């Protein structure tokens, strides 16, 4: 399964949960990915991904991170730079706190020395699990830098990092099919996979916020229309009158009223809760 195919499957399972009131069981997730043979670590990352989308995964609780100084997923460059400073006034206070804690954890990642540079790529080609974990932890800081660069108000830096971490772990596991070029070229391809995952998340969240903003605008238009008609007619107004005024169907008008928290009555509405 390529990273692109996996992203598509993630979108499919999110769509599935929307039909189930944003709730899914761990067993249903395992069944969904059964043919992809994900290991437990990968499944846990999928569970965390779903939770980041405000989806309840029954029975799953994210384990607290061990105080080892190295998280199990993430990103830095192939030279192993760590302990990057957080830009002043970056994001919200909550994001600042998260980044401080996260960077403290990854500061313990040992940089890549010259001898290891010569052997890491060879070990990766031989499917060495320790080499894959090493490459993943070496990319921790790069993922943070990328999230800082790409963050928008609609998406928290924590969500971006988690999204990229998920993509990174899966892409590293697929390196058997991509092991050409130098270690730097492999690193750059993995980082590009992470960037694309972040971009997809940002576009999805922008779409959600655009829809939400439009809903708020429609509610305000409805309330304004009701007030105008009440003053003009000197009485409660009927649903069909509001619909005609706004040039929408009665069904659309009723839906907007429900969004506004209004009770839709046959005899009319006064626009007050």
Automatic annotation (TrEMBL):
<dbReference type="GO" id="GO:0003700">
    <property type="term" value="F:DNA-binding transcription factor activity"/>
</dbReference>
<protein>
    <submittedName>
        <fullName>Uncharacterized protein</fullName>
    </submittedName>
</protein>
<dbReference type="InterPro" id="IPR013324">
    <property type="entry name" value="RNA_pol_sigma_r3/r4-like"/>
</dbReference>
<dbReference type="GO" id="GO:0006352">
    <property type="term" value="P:DNA-templated transcription initiation"/>
</dbReference>
<dbReference type="InterPro" id="IPR036388">
    <property type="entry name" value="WH-like_DNA-bd_sf"/>
</dbReference>
<dbReference type="InterPro" id="IPR013325">
    <property type="entry name" value="RNA_pol_sigma_r2"/>
</dbReference>
<feature type="region of interest" description="Disordered">
    <location>
        <begin position="64"/>
        <end position="85"/>
    </location>
</feature>
């Amino acid at each position: 399964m390529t990273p692109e195919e996996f992203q598509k499957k993630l979108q499919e399972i999110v769509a599935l949960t929307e039909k189930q009131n944003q709730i899914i069981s761990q067993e249903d997730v395992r069944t969904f990915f059964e043919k992809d043979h994900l290991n437990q670590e990968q499944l846990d990352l999928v569970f965390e991904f779903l939770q980041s989308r405000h989806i309840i995964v029954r029975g799953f609780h994210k384990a607290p991170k061990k105080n080892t100084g190295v998280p199990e997923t993430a990103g830095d460059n192939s030279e192993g730079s760590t302990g990057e400073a957080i830009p002043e006034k970056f994001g919200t206070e909550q994001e600042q706190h998260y980044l401080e804690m996260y960077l403290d954890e990854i500061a313990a990642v040992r940089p890549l020395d010259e001898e290891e540079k010569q052997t890491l790529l060879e070990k990766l080609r031989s499917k060495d699990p320790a080499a894959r974990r090493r490459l993943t932890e070496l990319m921790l800081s790069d993922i943070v830098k990328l999230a800082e660069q790409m963050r928008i108000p609609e998406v928290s830096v924590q969500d971006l990092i988690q999204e990229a971490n998920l993509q990174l772990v899966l892409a590293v596991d697929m390196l058997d099919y991509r092991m050409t070029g130098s270690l730097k070229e492999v690193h750059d391809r993995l980082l590009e996979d992470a960037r694309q995952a972040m971009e997809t998340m940002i576009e999805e969240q922008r779409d959600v916020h655009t829809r939400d903003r439009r809903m708020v605008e429609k509610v305000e238009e409805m309330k304004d229309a009701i007030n105008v008609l009440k003053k003009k007619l000197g009485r409660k107004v009927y649903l069909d009158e509001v619909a005609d005024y706004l040039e929408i169907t009665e069904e659309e008008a009723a839906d907007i009223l429900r969004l506004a928290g209004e009770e839709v009555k046959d005899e009319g509405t006064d626009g007050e809760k």
